[in-house]
Amino acid sequence: MLREELDIDTELIRGSGGIFEVKVDGQVVAKKTILGFPDEAEIVRSVGKALGG
Question: Is the model's pTM score more than 0.85?
């Protein structure tokens, strides 16, 4: 979805312990919280904002 919406490439880095973070230039812009995972639209918005969009 990030490719279609923002035309960017992504990389999946495997972690452990249920950690889920989306980073842009090393800064966490979206992550799993006690309430659950962010949805696709929230991730796209957060990444776009971090990229200045």
Answer: yes
